Amino acid sequence: MIKLLKKARKTLPSIKEALMIKLLKKARNVFVSFVRQEEGRVTTIAIVQFKTRRPEYNEETLVQILKNALTAWVKQTVRGRKAWDYTGGDFNIGDVGSGLQTQDIKKIREVMALEGVDDFDIVYIGDPSHSVPFDTVLVQRELLDIEE
Q: Which of 49, 89, 126, 139 is deepest in the core (most CB within 10 A)?
């Protein structure tokens, strides 16, 4: 009996990991852009990827869930309160991307999971002047053997 319990304990994390992988495969990706504008021009862009199995969740809902999770983190943890104080009450997506440690992100993800968001990640934060124009043609016409 004791051997069975020990074996079950060893396989439990792998079962949990397999279940999480299966759930994430069913999740859909939703990308949300956060944009900072100064003097009439875009100066900073952040793109956040959310994973959710909830088809009814739109960008607004996902941002609200992120706000709920961050508010809970600030309210319930010393590190969250320090981060809030450090920003002078102006905690934004840039602070999420640069100021949080792994254990903080883990707590925030746990809260978001309770509301149906399986994961989130900031996939880009940067200066849009380093961007490529959206309508840039990506096929090199001069290398095609096509007569016009």
A: 49
For 100, phi then psi, to 5°, come to -105, 145
CB-based contacts of 123-127 (< 8 A; 24+ apart in sequence): 123/31, 123/47, 123/48, 123/49, 124/45, 124/46, 124/47, 125/44, 125/45, 125/46, 125/47, 125/93, 125/94, 125/97, 125/98, 126/44, 126/45, 127/43, 127/44, 127/45
Residue type, 122: I
52/63 Cα distance (integer angstroms): 12
d(CA 77, CA 139): 51
pLDDT in tens, 44-88: 999 999 999 999 999 999 999 999 999 999 999 999 999 999 999
User: With 0-12 CB in 10 A as exposed, 13-18 as middle and 19+ as buried, what is 143?
Assistant: exposed
d(Cα 71, Cα 56) in Å, to the nearest integer?
23
H/E stretch holding 72 reads helix 59-76
Q: Would you give the DSSP letter of residue 124?
A: E
114-129 per-position pLDDT tens digit: 999 999 999 999 988 8
